[in-house]
Amino acid sequence: MAGKGNENTGGDFSFSAAAARDALPRITTEKGGKSTDVCHDDTAPRVNFQTIDELHSLQKKRSAPTTPLRDGSASGVSGTSGPTTPVSSETMLQSVSASLASLTRETGPKLIRGDPTSAAKVAHVPVTPTSLPTADVSDSGLKFTHILHNLSPAELYEQAIKYEKGSFVTSTGALATLSGAKTGRSPKDKRVVKDETTEAELWWGKGSPNIEMDEQTFLVNRERAVDYLNSLDKVFVNDQYLNWDPENRIKVRIVSARAYHSLFMHNMCIRPTPEELENFGTPDFTIYNAGKFPCNRFTHYMTSSTSVDINLGRREMVILGTQYAGEMKKGLFGVMHYLMPKRKILSLHSGCNMGKDGDVALFFGLSGTGKTTLSTDHNRYLIGDDEHCWSETGVSNIEGGCYAKCIDLAREKEPDIWNAIKFGTVLENVVFDEHTREVDYTDKSVTENTRAAYPIEYIPNSKIPCVGPHPKNVILLACDAFGVLPPISKLNLAQTMYHFISGYTALVAGTEEGVKEPRATFSACFGAAFIMLHPTKYAAMLAEKMQAQGATGWLVNTGWSGGSYGSGSRIKLAYTRKIIDAIHSGSLLNASYRKTDIFGLEIPNEVEGVPSEILEPINAWEDKMAYEDTLLKLAGLFKSNFETFTSHKIGDDGKLTEEILAAGPNF
Q1: Which sequence positions are flagged as catalytic?
Q2: Region Disordered: which residues (predicted)?
Q3: Packing angle, helices 655-662 and 535-549, rounded to 10
Q4: What is the pTM of this model?
């Protein structure tokens, strides 16, 4: 009938062949070599598949990653995905199998690359036996473990949403997830192996964050973690870097059980290019994150079901009993605090930015001092927000991302962080609307320590690669709730070392009615929880580098003026920004100064845009006697804190130690 319809037979039903083609698609038949002819519509392009499975196979293709390259260029949208398949499967699987090898079995586990739910069957790649002692094979040794190696954020989203309860996509595209019972670090459960080398090199004893464990106990925990990971159907493996300085970067491998942890470290470490990943080889340091599985509390040195263990000799870290991802980030930071000084490189817990003329500033400060806010400046390039190295060639960011606090986050206050919370970003422990998935950053139902982890490229004015020349200014931030420190002081070298070692800020004791007394907080080197060596060693390196490069030290109080917390008022952020601008511009180097009593700090007589009456703290206090009493109280707290460090001599003759002590409060 289709053939007859093309004939002009006259009458009401007649139409031309051209009109017929315009009215309906032309349907024809082809001989398919079978008894049944195959019909197709030739008005659309022919397709390259015959079945629905073939169609699905065409949906995905291999593509180059979008990781920023060392010269700062990137393909596609920066930071939104990572390399997925460039590395040789055989080489990678052999390397990972060696990492996951038990200490009591001859070979590492049998590994397969890819998701165990995938329809594709991948042959097992044989691994090279190790020289470890043999033992009876275990059930886990008979099974295959699937390795999900350097997955992209999109792939990790799929894994998290499908398999990890509590994972959701928020309205801005970020991945919201939960860290379980632990919503912060567990410093009392952190252990460092004490052996002949570390006993001599590390800081032990009063004030130190390093709590010892022996080698045998570490191996017990390592075996527990490895056995747990090998018992799983799949594990996530990240091969990445620390330190943007290519001459001093560290290769790290993170083996974990959760997509959340893999995506977190994808963001926080430096993402390798395909060529770098293909030649990655053996890692310099390995993390075994078995945080979903507890440690054995009957094991020696264990005080809870959580244990975070670092073995500097084996270059390994084991995590048991906590799923909080920050343990990995800060654990690696501690490792860098040990490895970098061995290369005469200073590791720093600081923010860092650079002006358009290449002038670099370091920002040190504890929580609440404004370190993140002040180092993030739209008029300057962000090198990094938290962890840096200072080498003979300049500064470099240790990380590839930012880990920002989210509590009370607002677009108006922190637009860069707000806009960075998009696809690829991990949101920890936030609360959101069950329908719209809009996050309520004021909600503390899960924890106050809500966080966002995102690639540094998500900050518009970030400098890629994250390196810069030698710093010109070293800014120490203190939120002085006692209200007696000046808003700005210029420090000499000894004073810079004294206040760097002290690491002072002050917090309000509580929010209960009637509580007005501030509480002093001291954290050596503004990061005592992460340092490995004695604080004076980092201070001596800082002084040496500042002296060699002509850098200037500054103490900036972002806290109270005109009285302590409860009677005075917080120094306006606008004033603090004017002070920071004056430091960057160099105008304060040419200002006239006067010296304060007790602390001996040099205060500028004027700073453009800042009321002169607040520059000298006593002038802003109505009750002068109360000011004097509070000043002496704070000075006493400084002296008491510094007693921990007085017995440690710097240099052969200890002369520098005497200079640092003399730079403290004198009364």
Answers
A1: 185, 330, 349, 367, 371-372, 386, 451
A2: 56-92
A3: 90
A4: 0.84
